[in-house]
């Protein structure tokens, strides 16, 4: 009995162990039939100047009659043209095997596995040192053959010996991992076409998982598990212990590569391979990296920026290669009060072990010189687009910060890739309260404009801020993804010319309202960045039907000019004049790219750079334009049907846009990418003008400063359903009893509160005045001024005083409206003025008021998600004066409609019924 019970228990334990092992093994397998877009193989390295001339998916020519991938490589004399299929980093174990179905007209192709050594760097690529262990060769030209590679331990030992002989110095070759399947596609000089199908990998054991399961990694020499791992010298004798062997790992001293402008996405859980497909080079994580995200980054070939860990984790050391920098102060506003805290963090990171050393990056809100002393790179977040700063102000504010830090650190910019987090929360609350779908069009043109304007300061990197996942499946997420893909490819096309360039004086324009930024590139060319100044918050108009002329000085008059807007190097005409020359551009896009050079051969380089990105850029732009026209037409019909807009539908513009798209459909389907971009540009200009007019029809408060979440975010469908709130009927009594500001006691304790920042450079004050008020008998006057000869900056750094109202209780689910009358004087520098906001919407949803010497009404619409206490806030940004009066907070409390005069049929007499037939 005991024996049987023991055996039964043993059987149960054994079964559970086998099930667990089987589940782990099954999870670790990889099978890719290569029958779906996009192509996955990439040309990695070659010794024969190889280049890919054709690379695509075939629908029905695979080994089993299904899809496959075909690559055509043109090579010179040599021996290697390595195609790589990246996989997640896995341990080097004898159970690891890989097979690939291959067909070519030439024999000699071989399949192998690429092994990387994480603690040694390749001086040429600055990647971990690598070698390839090959397996079977292709010997049957003209037919599919499945080639395999496995049990690579013995061959890897020979490769390690060869590496030691090659470098002739101690090498730290611990913890190697396999990160790619390799096919040597060299079939001799000339063109070689290879079809690839049915990739299968077995025995995969992910790095990081193996340590927790008790597995050791390949050590470079087979020893007993109880022995200390040692590395053999070139003659095979045992050398020094690996634990005491000096390493040769050189960590880059720059946070961002210097030969281009890298694009970074603030990560929100998106698959990294998909992020890579959108044209990003890196991601910024919200937490220290773990093994899973690092493995994924190695496979996707993405750099990683992240907050540093509390303490280094030795098990992650083999995976640290993609980590390019530690980001300090994530989620905090790095102002002057946090310099000490940031210094402590920076010093702690400088004392990390050598393999964990990385450049330190920060995104300060002010005190740029102080943060430049403790960081290796700084990120300047561009102003919130809804504050409606001009192009000159945006560029000037960033240039001032660039001047403060000089060349001591690398400089990057941050661009919002979506409406603010608070605005999205407000839109969600409004949609939930009224039952309207959050439909609309992401206003990506303003993001593109801000990106192109930021290039005027030649940043080393562009960080696209995001608070929601691009893979969430919403309509806005899809539009954001396409817009980011288009923007990334535009920046990547210009990257080699932006890197190392210098800012020059803008060139004058005539015609439509545009700005012409100017960069002088490292090779002596001139890069002109034209951006529309016809903006309203996050909305932009292109110059459809208009033209602009760039006025060139005499030294640029006799050069060759190319237009790169359509991802092609288009030669354009230069018209000589008595004092130089002019470049005419008819119907300009929202952003135009012009390059001028005295080297006619530059055109071929520009064409080659543009050709890499034109296809996907045209697909993204076409889809964005098509959606814009379709959605705008639907919203106009909806607005008129629901009587939310009194204006007439712009039929002519919508029809012209729709006809342009219909006529260009054949061009789009034919794959003519450059022509597709030209057609999309024209239709897009009409589409965004119709969208502009719709927003104007839905906002009765304009042109007065107004914050309305659906309008600010481009969610016109929500705004249409919310349109009754735009009228005065339905709003309740004023809940802010002291909002009239008619008593000198409004600044007494328990009432209005005045706060000052403790900065030595500025002074501020508030006082009640009975002169110059709007209504009643008094108002509050706020004054801020500099205490030195230096003027106060704008933005967060220029915030010196804050006035806030007493709290007002807002019930759950209630909409409320805030009104105030204000006047401003002064505030002459960029990003200065009176910022009006409330404690629920926050500063990012505030309205910036400046240049309003007459009384101006300001209005904020908000939706409470829960019972809360709301305060109205007024902040002075920079030096100036503001007068505030008649502040009101009202709840949306519409009266119930009177009952309809219906009479129950059963209760009514026959002769009382009108028009009775009975």
Describe the structure.
- With 918 residues, the chain is of the alpha+beta class.
- Among the domains are: 1-30; 33-224, Galactose-binding domain-like (Jelly Rolls), CATH 2.60.120; 614-726; 731-892, Galactose-binding domain-like (Jelly Rolls).
- 26% of the residues lie in helices and 30% in strands.
- Strands 14-15-16-17-18-19-20-21 form an eight-stranded parallel β-barrel, surrounded by four helices. Strands 34, 35, 37, 38, 41, 44 and 47 form a seven-stranded mixed beta sheet that branches.
- Strand 17 (323-327), helix 6 and strand 18 form a beta-alpha-beta unit.
- The longest helix is centred in the last third of the chain and has 28 residues, at 614-641.
- Residues 1-28 and 219-251 have low confidence and may be disordered.
- Residues 1-28 form the signal peptide.
- Keywords: Signal.
Summarize the structure.
The protein has 918 residues and is of the alpha+beta class. Strand 14 (262-266), helix 4 (272-277) and strand 15 form a beta-alpha-beta unit.
Largest sheet: 8 strands, parallel, barrel
CATH top level class name of one domain: Mainly Beta
CATH superfamily of one domain: Galactose-binding domain-like
The computed structural class is alpha+beta
Molecular shape: globular
| Total count of helical runs of at least 4 residues | 17
CATH architectural group of one domain = Sandwich
Helix content: 25-40%
* N-to-C CA distance: 93 Å
Mean pLDDT: 89
Enumerate the strands of the largest sheet in spatial order, edge to edge or round the barrel: 14-15-16-17-18-19-20-21
CATH topology of one domain: Jelly Rolls
* Strand residues, percent: 25-35%
Poorly predicted residue ranges: 1-28, 219-251
Number of extended strands: 47
Radius of gyration, whole Å: 33 Å
Keywords: Signal
């Amino acid at each position: 009995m005991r024996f049987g019970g023991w055996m039964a228990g043993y059987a149960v334990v054994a079964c559970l162990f086998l099930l667990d092992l089987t589940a782990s093994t099954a999870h670790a397998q990889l099978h890719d039939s290569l029958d779906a877009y996009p192509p996955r193989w990439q040309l990695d390295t070659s010794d024969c100047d190889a280049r890919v001339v054709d690379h695509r998916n075939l629908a029905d020519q695979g080994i089993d009659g299904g899809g496959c991938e075909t690559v055509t490589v043109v090579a010179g004399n040599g021996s290697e043209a390595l195609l790589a299929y990246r996989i997640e980093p896995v341990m080097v174990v004898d159970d690891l095997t890989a097979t690939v179905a291959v067909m070519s007209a030439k024999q000699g192709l071989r399949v192998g596995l690429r092994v990387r050594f994480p603690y040694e760097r390749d001086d040429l690529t600055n990647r971990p040192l690598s070698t390839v262990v090959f397996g079977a060769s292709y010997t049957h030209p003209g037919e599919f053959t499945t080639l395999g590679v496995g049990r690579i331990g013995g061959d890897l030992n020979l490769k390690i010996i060869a590496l030691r002989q090659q470098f002739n110095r101690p090498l730290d070759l611990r913890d190697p991992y396999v990160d790619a399947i390799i096919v040597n596609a060299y079939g001799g000089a000339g063109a070689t076409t290879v079809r690839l199908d049915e990739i299968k990998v077995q025995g995969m054991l992910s790095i990081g998982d193996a340590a927790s399961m008790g597995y050791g990694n390949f050590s470079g020499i087979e020893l007993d598990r109880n022995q200390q791992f040692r590395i053999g010298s070139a003659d095979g004798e045992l050398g020094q212990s690996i634990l005491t062997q000096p390493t040769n790992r050189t960590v880059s001293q720059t946070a961002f590569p210097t030969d281009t402008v890298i694009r970074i996405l603030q990560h929100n859980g998106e698959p990294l391979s998909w992020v890579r497909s959108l044209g990003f080079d890196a991601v910024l994580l919200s937490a220290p990296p773990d093994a899973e995200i690092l493995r994924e980054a190695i496979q996707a070939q993405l750099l990683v920026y992240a907050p540093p860990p509390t303490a280094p984790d030795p098990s992650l050391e083999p995976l640290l290669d993609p980590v390019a920098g530690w980001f300090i102060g994530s989620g905090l506003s790095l102002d002057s009060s946090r310099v000490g805290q940031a210094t402590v963090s920076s010093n702690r990171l400088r004392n990390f072990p050598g393999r964990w050393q990385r450049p330190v990056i920060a995104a300060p809100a002010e005190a740029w010189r102080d943060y430049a002393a403790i960081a290796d790179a700084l990120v300047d977040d561009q102003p919130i687009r809804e504050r409606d700063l001009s192009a000159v102000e945006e560029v000037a504010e960033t240039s001032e910060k660039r001047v403060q830090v000089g060349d001591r650190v690398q400089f990057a910019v941050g661009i919002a890739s979506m409406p603010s987090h608070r605005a999205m929360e407000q839109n969600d609350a409004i949609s939930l309260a009224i039952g309207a779908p959050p439909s609309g069009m992401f206003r990506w043109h303003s993001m593109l404009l801000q990106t192109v304007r930021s290039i005027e300061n030649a940043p080393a990197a562009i960080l696209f801020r995001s608070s929601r996942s691009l893979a969430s499946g919403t309509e806005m997420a899809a539009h954001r993804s396409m817009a980011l893909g288009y923007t990334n490819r535009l920046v990547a096309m210009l990257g080699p010319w932006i890197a190392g360039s210098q800012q020059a004086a803008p060139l004058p324009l005539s015609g439509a309202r545009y700005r012409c930024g100017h960069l002088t590139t490292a090779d002596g060319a001139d890069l002109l960045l034209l951006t529309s100044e016809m903006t309203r918050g996050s909305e932009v108009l292109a110059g459809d039907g208009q033209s602009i002329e760039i006025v060139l000085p005499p030294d640029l008059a006799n050069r060759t000019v190319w237009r790169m807007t359509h991802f092609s190097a288009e030669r354009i005409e230069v018209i000589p004049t008595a004092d130089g020359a002019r470049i005419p551009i008819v119907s300009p896009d929202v952003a135009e790219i012009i390059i001028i050079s005295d080297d006619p051969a530059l055109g071929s380089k520009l064409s080659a750079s543009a050709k890499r990105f034109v296809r996907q850029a045209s697909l993204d732009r076409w889809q964005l334009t098509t959606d814009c026209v379709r959605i705008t037409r639907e919203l106009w019909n909806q607005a008129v049907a629901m009587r939310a807009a009194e204006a007439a539908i712009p039929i002519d513009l919508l029809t012209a846009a729709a006809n342009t798209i219909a006529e260009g459909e054949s061009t789009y389907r034919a794959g003519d990418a450059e022509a597709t971009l030209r057609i999309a540009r024209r239709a897009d200009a009409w589409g965004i003008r119709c969208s502009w007019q719709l927003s104007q029809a839905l906002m009765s408060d304009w042109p007065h400063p107004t914050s309305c979440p659906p309008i600010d975010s481009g969610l016109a469908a929500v705004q249409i359903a919310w349109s009754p709130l735009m009228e005065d009927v339905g709003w309740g009594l004023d809940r802010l009893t002291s909002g009239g500001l008619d008593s000198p006691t409004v600044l007494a304790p328990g009432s209005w509160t005045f706060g000052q920042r403790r900065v030595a450079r500025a002074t501020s004050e508030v006082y009640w005045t009975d002169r110059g008020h709007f209504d009643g008998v008094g108002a509050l006057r706020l004054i801020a001024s500099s205490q030195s000869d230096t003027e106060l900056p704008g933005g967060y750094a220029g915030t010196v005083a804050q006035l806030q109202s007493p709290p007002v209780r807002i019930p759950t689910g209630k909409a409320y409206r805030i009104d105030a009358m204000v006047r401003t004087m002064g505030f002459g520098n960029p990003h200065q003025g009176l910022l009006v906001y409330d404690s629920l919407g926050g500063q990012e949803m505030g309205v910036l008021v400046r240049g309003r010497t007459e009384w101006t009404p300001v209005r904020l619409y908000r939706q409470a998600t829960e019972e809360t206490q709301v305060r109205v806030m007024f902040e002075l940004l920079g030096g100036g004066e503001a007068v505030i009066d008649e502040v009101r907070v009202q709840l949306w409390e519409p009266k119930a409609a009177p009952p309809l005069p219906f009479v129950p049929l059963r209760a009514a007499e026959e002769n009382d019924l009108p028009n009775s037939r009975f």
